[in-house]
Amino acid sequence: MPELPEVEITARRLDEALKDVEIESTLAPGLNALKTFDPPLHALDGQTIEGVRRIGKHLVIDVGGDLHVLIHLMSAGRLQLFDKRAGLRDRTSRLLIRLPEDRELRLREFGTKQAAWVKVLRGPDLATEDAVATLGPEAWPDPPADLAALLKSPRPLHTLLRDQRTIAGIGRSWVDEILWQAELSPFKRGNDLTEDEASALRTAIVETLDGAIRHYEEVVHLPIPDKLPLPLQVHRHQGEPCPRCGTTLEAVFYEDYVMSYCPKDQTGGKVLKDRRLSRLLK
Ligand SMILES: [Zn+2]
C-alpha cells in the first residue's frame, strides 16, 4: 500500500489540479529520498507542470524542459497538495514542490522507515530507468489477454501477481481481493492455471481494480488524505465471515504482511499453515 488504485487516484487528482502550474521552488528535506543529482532538483524551478500520471505503482510528474519526476511512495508515502506551505517542521516531508499562491505539493512519509524515493530524470531517461524498464505489463485497465502465458511459472499466484516484473501495479492488499474474487488459491502455481481459471483471474483483476478506483473517485479529494479509505473485503478481514459464502476468513501471517483468504471458495476447505507459527516451531 499504496498500490495501483491508490496511485491512480492520486495521479488523477493531482493532474486535474496541477496542469500548467508553474513550479516556484523545490526542496528535499528528506535527505535520503532524492536518488539523483544530475539534473539537479533545482532544474525544476521555474518550469511548468505538464501533467501527473501513473506507471505501475509509481507517480510521474511531467515537467517542462523535458524533465520528469519519478516517485515511488513505497509502503507509507503520500503525495499531497496543500493550500499552505508546511514550513520545515513537518518531519514527514521528503520533497516539497512550491507553487504559486502559497500552495505546496508535498511528498510525505509516515512511520519510521525512509523508503519513499524520488528521481529527477531527463526525457529519454525515464523509459530506460531501471524501476520503469523492468516493469511487466500494466495490470489495469487492460492486462494481457493471454494471462496464462504471462503467469507460466512454478511460482504461486500470490507471489507472481505481486511481482512488478511480471505484472505491474498489484501489491499485498489487492492481491488478496483479486484471488478471492477469482476463487483461486494463493498457493496455486502459475503453471497449473487452466484457461478458464486464467480468464476468471483476468476478469477479477480488471473488476477489482476498477471497483477500487470507482470508489476512490467518490471519496478521495485533495489534498489526498493521510489514510486512504481502502474498500477491502478480504485482506486483513480474517476471523470475519466471507462476504460471499459466510465461511470464516482465514489468514497466513508472514513477518511483515498477512495473506487473507476464504478456505471454502479458494483452497477446497483447507486451512493453510500459519508460516509464522510453523517457523517458530522449527
Ligand atoms: Zn467464501
Describe what you observe in this structure.
This protein has 9 helices and 10 strands. Helix 1 crosses helix 7. The protein has 2 domains: 130 residues, N-terminal domain of MutM-like DNA repair proteins (Alpha-Beta Barrel), CATH 3.20.190.10; 135 residues, Helicase, Ruva Protein, domain 3. The protein is α+β, with helices and mostly antiparallel strands. The protein is elongated. The two termini are 31 Å apart. Bound molecules: zinc ion (ZN). The site of zinc ion has 7 residues, from helix 8.
Features:
282 residues; alpha+beta; Helicase, Ruva Protein, domain 3; four-stranded antiparallel sheet; 9 helices; binds zinc ion
Radius of gyration: 20 Å
Domain count: 2
Highest-level CATH class of the largest domain: Mainly Alpha
- The overall strand count is 10
* Integer average pLDDT: 94
- The sequence of SSEs as H and E is HEEEEEEEEHHHHHHEEHH
Q: What is the CATH-assigned architecture of the largest domain?
A: Orthogonal Bundle
Point out poorly predicted stretches. Answer: none
Q: Compounds present?
A: zinc ion
Q: Which oligomerization state do the chains in this entry correspond to?
A: single chain
> What share of residues is helical?
25-40%
Task: Find the structural class using helix and strand composition.
Answer: alpha+beta
Percent range for β-strand residues: 15-25%
Widest β-sheet, arrangement of strands: 1-6-7-5
